[in-house]
Structures are given as C-alpha cells and as structure tokens.
Specification:
- Helix content is about 45%, strand content about 20%.
- The chain is of the alpha+beta class.
- The strands form four sheets. The chain has a four-stranded antiparallel beta sheet, covered by helices on one side.
- A hairpin with a 5-residue loop joins strand 3 and strand 4.
C-alpha cells in the first residue's frame, strides 16, 4: 500500500519516464491517417458525381469491409491515445518525501521514504536500492535504458535526498520576476507579415470564387456556396484580428512573458501555452533548418524527463527573443539574477507603407471578386496584358517590402 503520493508540483521533484522520440510530426497520426483514407474511400464507394460507382467492388462488399475498417479506426485511436498517455508516464520519481517506482500500468509497485533507505547506487546496468529493513532491490526497467548514464543519474539524485539536501516540508522560495516581450510595431515591415495578409486576402478570394466552377443551375452550386462561406468568414476574422493588432491604437501585442507563475507563450491564433516553474527543469533554444527554411524551438525538459518542443517562429525576432527567453527561464529555475533583456516598447505604430499596402491588398481582392461576376466579354477586356503586369508587381511588392524598408532605413 503506498505511503504517500509524489508531489509533482514541487520544483525539487525529479523523475524519469519512458524516453520516446516520436517519428511523427503531428499528434494522433494513426487516427488522422485513418480519417484521411476514409474520406478518399467514400469518393470511390458512393456515387457522388452522378457518373456511377467508381469501384463497384467497394459498394458490393460494403457489409464485409466496413466493420473491419471501423474496427481499424478504433484500434488506431486506442494506440494513439495509449502512446500519448505513455509518453509522459513516470517510471521512477524522487521527491522530498521518498522514492517511488511505477510499473507500465501507472501503478506504484515500490515506494520508500528516505528515512527508510540506507543507500541507493548504480550497480552495473541496474539501480541497487538498499533499505534499512528488508531485502535489497536491483531495479532495472527497459523504459529507462535509452541512456547508459540514467541509473547513475538517478543514484546521484537519490544521494542528494538521502543527505538531506532537499528536506521535506521546507518552503520553496517564491519566484519574483516579471517581464514581457511585445511585438514591436515599428518593425512590422517584415516581408512575412505583409505576405501573411496577402495570403489571407487571396484565400478569402479563393473561398468566395471556388463555387463558381459549377454552373449556377447545378445542384452542387448552392451547397458549395454554403460550405465555402464558413472558411471565408474564418479567414475574414483572422484578417480583422491582424488589422487590429497592427494598426489600431491599442497596446502592442504581448508575445511571451515570465512571471511568478511560470512561462507564458501567446500565439497569434489566440491560444496560450503556460508552463509553471515546477514543470520546467531545463530549457534550451534549438535552431531547426529544413532546406532554405530556418525555424526556432524551445525545448523544455519537464520534471519526469519528458521534453516539450514549443515552436516559437511566431515571435517577431524569433532567433534573438527565443534566446532571451531561454536565458531568462534558465536563470529563474537556477536561482540566478535575470540576464540583461531587450527593452520592450508597448506602444508605437506600424509604418505608413505597411498600412497602405494592407488596404491595397483589400482593394485588389475586391476587384478580383468583382471580375468573377462580370460577363465574360467584359472580363476579357479588363484582363489585358498591362493589368497582368500590375498583378505581378503587386505580388512582388508584398514579398519584398521588408527589403525595401530595410534598404530605405540604411540610406537615411
């Protein structure tokens, strides 16, 4: 019968869990693959386009393969859920109360208070636990054998607790820090910012114009129009949020912050990721390069050795700000003073050129939508060669306005 419950909220708690590096770049991979293939199977099974069943065998033997396919989906969901649960499942925990060992089913199988232990040491490829009363235990678990030094690391941590380095019941010093990283509106000439607005306007145009591929008297026209309104409204909401973030008189957008609770990351989508100080044992910045793309992540090691990989490419100056965040968090968790941090401006306005380009994108998008509803003869007359050249110039302007601003600022 367990004597106590390990306190995972205590920042002195150390733990080790199954070390799994997922080969999949997205969560719930089996379930998502099953859903995607299911959508494809529907198009090959049922008469969706009025031209007859594309694969007759699929519809003929529907009673045979459909239950098996649903069972495969349920199995994939179960495996995804189990993998997600087991990725952070603890194997062994050292907290100020004692030493706790879990089996693969998340049940406590061994537990000792530090007062009941004589020694904990590494013994070959195992952990030797010597109680004051009772038989010694040579503990070995393949979940911990991803690293040759794991047992020695556990033994060193246990020795600190045995020597009273982290006595149970002592208060944990409160963290008293406060710093925020804001989006600097004066730097909103970056090409990715303007290209994001341009991409949003183009996607809205596509959502509105996509149903026009069907004749107006087609049975698919009105359903397609109704379905395409949903992404158009969602994209319009994102565009309005982008406008407010850049050009309204409200305070600058907070992108990240550290305070007495922990680390907070505020994403442009409105989502927030918060990691309390007890959930952070180590942090480092990682540069990720794929072809010509370079991105940045914060790799945060939790109390059980599990690693949170947080994408921070949304930060305005991702390289420098993510390095600052990593340095500040590392200083806090190790009880050091904060390093010098870049001064942040809460106010300011975006450059006038970016403001004019935003409304130019809106105007061009409205013209494109208007052209789609004009008669073919008028549309052909409007879409002349000079207009095509202007469209190319418009796209280049969105892509290179950041370089233009940087060149202009250097010349001034």
């Amino acid at each position: 019968m367990p004597h106590f419950t390990p306190d995972l909220d205590d920042p002195r708690t150390l733990g080790w869990c199954q070390h799994t590096l997922s080969k999949w770049p997205w969560p719930w991979p089996l379930s998502q693959c099953w859903l995607g293939i299911s959508i494809i199977l529907v198009s090959f099974t049922f008469d969706l386009d009025g031209r007859g069943v594309r694969v007759a065998a699929l519809s003929t033997y529907l009673w045979l393969w459909l239950p098996l396919w649903l069972a495969a989906g349920a199995g994939g969901f179960f495996l995804d859920a189990r993998r997600k649960r087991m990725d952070n499942a603890p194997c062994l925990i050292c907290d100020p109360q004692g030493l706790t060992i879990y089996d693969s089913g998340q049940h406590i199988v061994h537990q000792w208070r530090w007062q009941a232990l004589d020694n904990v040491m590494a013994h070959g490829r195992a952990l030797r636990i010597v109680p004051l009363n009772g038989e010694l235990l040579n503990y070995r678990d393949q979940r911990l054998e991803h690293d040759n030094d794991t047992y020695r690391t556990i033994a060193a941590a246990a020795q600190d607790f045995l020597r009273g380095k982290h006595p149970y019941g002592t208060p944990v010093p409160a963290v008293k820090v406060m710093h925020s990283w804001y989006e600097q509106r004066c730097k909103l000439y970056d090409s990715s910012e303007t290209m994001n607005d341009w991409a949003l306007t183009m996607l809205i145009c596509l959502s509105i114009l996509l149903p026009e591929m069907y004749p107006h008297d087609s049975a698919y026209y009105l359903p397609a129009r109704a379905v395409c309104v949903i992404p158009a409204l969602f994209l319009l909401r994102l565009l309005i949020r982008s406008y407010r973030r850049k050009f309204t008189g409200q305070d600058a957008t907070e992108q990240a912050a550290i305070d007495h609770d922990g680390l907070h990351l505020y994403y442009p989508s409105g989502n927030t990721t918060t990691l309390r100080w007890a959930q952070i044992k180590a942090i480092r910045q990682q540069e990720v390069s794929v072809a010509r793309y370079t991105g940045y992540r914060l790799n945060i090691t939790g109390p059980l050795g599990n690693v949170h990989r947080l994408n921070v490419d949304y930060l305005q100056d991702a390289k420098n700000i993510s390095r600052e965040i990593a340095a500040a968090v590392d200083a806090v968790i190790h009880g050091r003073p904060l390093p010098p941090l870049t001064a942040q401006e809460m106010y300011g306005s975006a450059p006038t050129g970016v403001f004019l380009l935003f409304w130019l994108n809106i105007l061009v998008s409205l013209l494109l939508i208007l052209l789609a509803f004009l008669p073919p003869s008028v549309r052909t007359a409007v879409l002349s060669a000079p207009l095509e050249y202007l469209m190319v110039l418009w796209i280049l302007l969105n892509g290179f306005i950041g370089n233009i601003y940087r060149w202009w600022n250097k010349r001034r």
